[in-house]
Every structure is written in structure tokens, then in C-alpha cells.
Amino acid sequence: MTNASVWLTEKDVTGAIDLNAAIDALENVLKSEAQQQAENMTKTHLMVGDNNAMHALGGAVHSLGVCGTKTWVNIDGKSSTMLLLFSLTDGACLAAIEATALGQMRTAAMTGLGTRWMADQNITEMAIIGTGKQALPQIAACLAVRLISKVRVFSRTPEKRKALIKAVEAEFPDLEVLNCESLEDAVHNVPLITLCTNATAPFFNAEMAAKGAHINAVGAIVPARAEFSGDIFPRCSAIAVDTVAGVKALSREFINYYEDGAGNWEQVKPISQLIADGYARPADVDLTLFKAMGMGISDVAIAHEVYSRCAGSDNVHTLPERRRQKLPLQTIN
Hints:
- The protein is an alpha/beta fold.
- It has two domains: 6-103 and 296-318, ornithine cyclodeaminase, domain 1 (2-Layer Sandwich); 110-291, Rossmann fold, CATH 3.40.50.
- The chain has helices at 10-16, 19-34, 100-118, 135-145, 158-171, 183-187, 244-250, 252-258, 271-277, 296-310, and strands at residues 6-8, 38-47, 53-61, 66-74, 82-87, 93-98, 125-129, 150-154, 176-179, 192-195, 214-217, 236-241, 268-270, 287-291, 317-318.
- Strand 7 (125-129), helix 4 (135-145) and strand 8 form a beta-alpha-beta unit.
- Helix 7 (244-250) crosses helix 8.
- The longest helix is centred in the N-terminal third of the chain and has 19 residues, at 100-118.
- The termini are far apart.
- The mean pLDDT is 94.
């Protein structure tokens, strides 16, 4: 592996790792977190518009010897995310990574883990609510861990539903894909429901969820957004999140329910704890819920895997050697 810092493009990322490998890499790092060998930097954001936000997060994975920070600004659904990966040995910058695809893969991989550990083993159908850029990877993540044969699709915009269905059918030609004209039709008696929207008010409630269903909620990652109502919580026998600190600080759904005293925060477990404990879903549960906010160590996990696969290649871009310079203390003419 070269000692020079590298610049990894979106093409480098997508050429180095697939979703299955990303799920496994993330699971390994979450096991490290459960052993106090990985920790998150508190996620922060600044709203720069009514529904636009600048974000920053990071984490350290001591078991891998790396740490990293990721930052981006989302403007009307558009962003150019960057991640910097550093060595915990000498502080060297190992890589600057174009991280839009990496972030999508991380978000999807986290849903894949939530589904792998919490959803019923025998499900064959799911619903995706939301048709944005994350929707297709979210479907793929569920397919990676369950034998799904049918997907129901819903969003408020018919044209976006049709576009997503076309993309799903092209990627997974054996999959049955249903265009649902209402949310109720999409989720009726479905055992796996993934919410992935930019909704600013809750739209999914307990009456819509079938007994035995697992819910992945991954769209509302700032307090200005919310996807499900508080009546979901009392029905859940297991509630897991990527980061408890993240939902306490940034999830309006969790803040409104738990800080009003309706529930006990001890009910909310990090997914890393479920993995470490070998959680097995009981047969008679009502609902299970997984909430992902985005956390630094998940990005670092995927970034390190990509870096490990790419850095020794002659095809990647190396950055100029860093040469420290004397600070100019006098006025430069």
C-alpha cells in the first residue's frame, strides 16, 4: 500500500466494493463498537434553508487504526459529499474520498443490518416509501439479506414512482414491483416497511402497520423532519438505532416521544449491542423498529474498506506530497 495520500473518486468507490461487502464491513465495525474499539464524533448540522442543511460527522475505529470526518451540504436534494480518512498511528491523511455513493452505500448497508438482525427470517415482501436517490439502494439492501420477491412502491409523485419502478425492474428483473397509488395500499399486511423520505410531518402511524412487521426509518435525520408518529413506539418489542446519541439530539420522532415521558430511553438500543448480544427475533412480536440517523463510524467503516482495496492500485490518484511551510509573518507585497 502506498504511503502517499490518495484521492478516491466516485468511480473508485463503486468499483471497489459492492453492497454485500459493505454490509459485512459495517457489521464488523459495529462489533468493534460494542467492544469499545470504535466511537462516534457527535453529528452536527446547520439548517441553511427551510429543508436544506449542512452536515458534519465522524468517527474513530481503533481496531482498524483509522478515523475520519465527512461533510456535505444538501441543497434541494443536491450535494457533493467529501470524506477525509486519517491514520490513528501518525495522523497522516490517508485519503480524500468523493463520498456521495459511499454515503448511499453506508445508508443502505445500515438498513441491511437492521433488516438482517430484526426482520422476520421468512419474509418475501417489502414496501419502500419514498422514491428519491436512496430508494433503489434501500431496496437492494433488503434484498441482500432477505429472499424478497415482491416490492410495493409509494410516493406522492406518480412520475417518480414510475421512474423508480423502471430502475428496480432493470436492476432486478425477477422482482415483482407494484405501483401503489396510496400509502395504505403500499403498507397493508406488509412485513417489512422502509421509510425513506424528506417528510416534515409524520405520515405513518401504528394503525397502518401489520402485526409482526419490521420498520426501517431512515429519512428523517434532522429535527425539521419526521416520518412516523409516536403511537408506533408502544407496539415495538425491540427498538434499535445506529446511534442513541444521534436520535436523542436530532430525531424529532424520538425526542417528542421519550422526552415527553411516554417511554424510557433504556428501551432504545444501539444496533451494535443487538449484534454483540446475538439478538434473535421472537416469533410472537408485534412490531420492531430500526432508526438510522447516520453516524461517523459507519462511514469510516466503508471508507476504510474502499481505501484498503484501492490504495495499492496504480490507477488511483495520489495527492501532492505535503510540504510544511514557514508561516509568513510579514506583509507580502
